[in-house]
Design a protein that fits this description.
The chain has about 60 residues and is mostly helical. It has two helices and no strands.
Length: about 60
């Protein structure tokens, strides 16, 4: 019976991992996909805008020589 107690934890973890992967794959797409994509695009645009604004602000600073 030692083999059962040795193999049970990896088998249980593998089953939970497979269930997790299946859940993630099934949740992709669907009716909310467009809304999720729009939210990600908006966040990326904000980050890009902040990065560009930050770099232009650095370039406009006087050097004080």
């Amino acid at each position: 019976m030692d083999y059962v107690s040795a193999l049970l934890p990896p088998v249980v973890m593998a089953c939970f991992f497979i269930g997790l992967v299946v859940t993630i794959v099934k949740s992709q797409g669907g009716p909310n996909k467009a809304k999720e994509d729009a939210a990600v695009d908006a966040a990326l645009a904000r980050a890009e805008g902040a990065r560009q604004h930050g770099s232009s602000a650095v370039a406009e600073r006087p050097t004080g020589a």
